[in-house]
Design a protein that fits this description.
single chain; 4% helix; Jelly Rolls; 1 helix; six-stranded antiparallel beta sheet
Length: 120
Amino acid sequence: MSFSVVDASDVEPVWGVFRPVRAKLGGGAFGMNQIDFGPDHVGVEHDELESRQEEIYVVLSGSGRLEVDGETVELRPGRYVLVSPDARRRPIAGPEGITMLCVGGVVGAPYPVGQGLGDE
């Protein structure tokens, strides 16, 4: 097949907030999840040292902020944020909630299909 299509509403969320759209599409070059946080939801602070993935966050709707190594980046539609694997990050939704796309991959390495959200 030369393409695949999925609607986010057809992707069952993992842990209530992560929609593994890459897995549902069958992609294998990078990781990609839609993150749906309700109003004022505070995400888990974490890094990606174990996975070695750098991540790009882009807001699809709503607003919030991303705390990265003690600094705060405002999140809004049309803003892209690249975070290195070693950086501690925590996404926080604004008062209306936030829907983000998070794309991840390891520089210079193939994406390890079978180790991401939604992989069977």
